[in-house]
Specification:
Layout (H helix, E strand, L loop, with lengths): L4 H4 L13 H11 L11 E6 L1 H20 L11 H13 L2 E7 L11 H27 L3 E5 L6 H8 L4 E9 L13 H4 L5
Antiparallel strand pairs: 1-2, 2-4, 3-4
Helix pairs in contact: 2-5, 3-4, 3-6
The structure holds flavin mononucleotide.
The site of flavin mononucleotide has 10 residues, from strand 3.
Length: 198
Amino acid sequence: MSNDPIYSRRSIRRFKSDPVAPELISEVLDAARMAPSPKNSQPWKYLVFGGEHKTDMLSCMQEGIEREEWGMPVLPRSVIGIPDAKNTLRVMQEAPIVILVLNTNGKSPFLPLDHDDRIIEVCDTLAIGASMQNLILKAEELGLGTLWIANTFFAYEELTDYLQTEAQLIGAIALGYANEAPMKRPRKEISEIAEFRL
Ligand SMILES: Cc1cc2nc3c(=O)[nH]c(=O)nc-3n(C[C@H](O)[C@H](O)[C@H](O)COP(=O)(O)O)c2cc1C
């Protein structure tokens, strides 16, 4: 089972500084684009950051986290997650590559949605999740570590301003060579997550 990336993958929060070859980045993006999507709309876009571009982008993320911590938070119930967001930022600084993920069909989560648009957004988000999972599992197969990141939401405005985009920022993936080998994290039993009506 441990050769199967579904079972061997872990979230990685310690990365080596070794660079990731561009061919490997292309390979994980190729896996990402094979995911299913509503009417094959492929509403994903991957922005690959490294070097100074990554440093600049992450300084915007840091600004957003600090604004949420010290200003008027736009996500008041999530303020408790700020220490975790700071740790995620540290991981993103350590990883040689950070990939931001956009929903090209989506709008800012701070804008209202009618019922139709909410259903479209759910379907597009599912497709992008499938695409991100393809990317992450391919990375695992290639010996690369990843972290799936949603803490970009603490700096939504700062990051989308930096990107000059109207598209929806879904999250990020940190990518690089793992510098830790975490134990398997607990999972619910099949009996807790499935009901059989056979
Ligand atoms: C949608 C999503 C968002 C996540 N966001 C973060 C994040 O911002 N920071 C972080 O450290 N981990 C993040 N994670 C990783 C989870 O904490 C991790 O998957 C979970 O604890 C299970 O551990 P495992 O991936 O090693 O099995 C995220 C995972 C998902 C699927």
